[in-house]
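Note to self: keep these together.
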Amino acid sequence: MGESTAAGCGVASHDEGFAAALAREFAASSSRFVTWHVLGQHGATARRIRHRLLPQLEESLDRAVLLAGANDVLAGRTSEQWGADLAAIVDDLASRAGEVTVVGIPPFRMFPSLPLTLRRYLAEQAIALDHVSQEVCAALPSVTWVTSSTLPDNLADFFAEDGFHPSAFGYRYWARAVSQGADRLDTSA
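Structure:
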């Protein structure tokens, strides 16, 4: 659940998006059939996810994955605002799911559609919010924070035409990294 990346922005169908790619990764690693459901909204901040999307989520999930934070950075939300909304979301998800994964904010410093100075500024803001995310996630044993800061060498393949959202390859790459718990302590957003 989450923002535009959960909604599959940048690809033609959900089958090419993050959720389907992650489900395939989980199925391959567990040798089990995986069903998935997406709740995502373009431009959603943690506040919107908390108050509008979370109430729509079904009960009794094996795993919940949250993609959020990029819009909070873009909206200039403070660490305190982010932390309060994230804690409420994570608490709710932990009551519905056996495992919860909170995916770190994507590395703005690498976004080709943004001017260099803006990339640097947004990356600093993302690092601050990711630190809060790690603290919130550490408070609950069933919740894991996973970084999003590692991207492939060829960024042209990672990003969709808009230079902001992942391509089908980008979503597959990102889902693989998340499914493997990629370097949870790396916060170089």
